[in-house]
Amino acid sequence: MSRIRVALVDDQALFRAGVRMLVDSQPDLEFAGEAGDGVTAVALVERERPDVVLMDVRMPLADGIQATERILAEADRAGRAAPRILVLTTFDLDENAARAIRAGASGFVLKDADPEFLLAAIRTVHQGNAVLAATATRELFAHLGRGGGRRPAPAAWNELTVREREIFALAAKGLSNAEIAQAEFLSEATVKTHVSRVLAKLGLRDRVQLVVFAYEHELSE
């Protein structure tokens, strides 16, 4: 099995050194390089093509939000799979972290999280899943967007079947595949298939983006 290639973007050299040692200690992970600012990060990803990028939010030249947007845009233009981007933040309810997720990041973790949690988060986003409970992500967006207007659902929403909309609603609440399967009396494999179809039809990268979509288009409770 090929190893998960991990790149790190953070302006603190000591923090980068610690994360590099942690990643290098894992047999299934490979350190793919580091950058100290958002501009260098874009070039790093273009050169090394990591699977997962650990991205700090507050950095010089270009911040983590700008770097996330550029990295994903470059991948889209080139027609290749984009890396999963995991935002590193200092605060639980960091509005910048929420903005980064809106820009296309797959989740966030606190910079002082336990090493084992960070390692698990890397593996989780690589599999295309959310790192944090989706309800926590929804809380972030409620915190960020309080008082702002929401948009009606786009035409793509109408392409979902009744069953897919049911699965969408449960996933938007933060339920795992196993929990959805139990609630709907389906197999986990069937739920996974439905979720994949929902993401494809709506043009979403992962379940975190699904929660964002639900919030922004008035489809969340």
From TrEMBL:
It comes from the Bacteria. InterPro entries: CheY-like_superfamily, NreC/VraR/RcsB-like_REC, Sig_transdc_resp-reg_C-effctor, Sig_transdc_resp-reg_receiver, Tscrpt_reg_LuxR_C, WalR-like. CDD domains: LuxR_C_like (cd06170), REC_NarL-like (cd17535). Residues 5-126 form the Response regulatory domain. The modification 4-aspartylphosphate is found at D56. Keywords: DNA-binding, Phosphoprotein, Transcription, Transcription regulation. One of its GO terms (biological process) is regulation of DNA-templated transcription. Gene3D superfamilies: 3.40.50.2300. Residues 153-218 form the HTH luxR-type domain. SUPFAM superfamilies: C-terminal effector domain of the bipartite response regulators, CheY-like. One of its GO terms (molecular function) is DNA binding. This is Response regulator transcription factor. It comes from Agromyces protaetiae. The lineage of its organism: Bacteria, Bacillati, Actinomycetota, Actinomycetes, Micrococcales.
